[in-house]
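Take a record:
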Amino acid sequence: MLEINGQRFQEGDVVRFERAGLPKNRTRDYTITAVTGAGIEASAGGFSYGFTKATATRIGITHSPTSRNED
């Protein structure tokens, strides 16, 4: 598990990066495939990406609205 800005992230979570450089990357859903000592690994569209905790914080990691559990 990794905590950033009061939110907890773990393997299997679906996330977005609200301040990503490209607009389409701000609304793309990424699935966290691993949480490591260095940060997270996530996949989207068949590609894998690595984000340090600092990078994930800077580009605004948050849980995707499509993954929120309303129970």
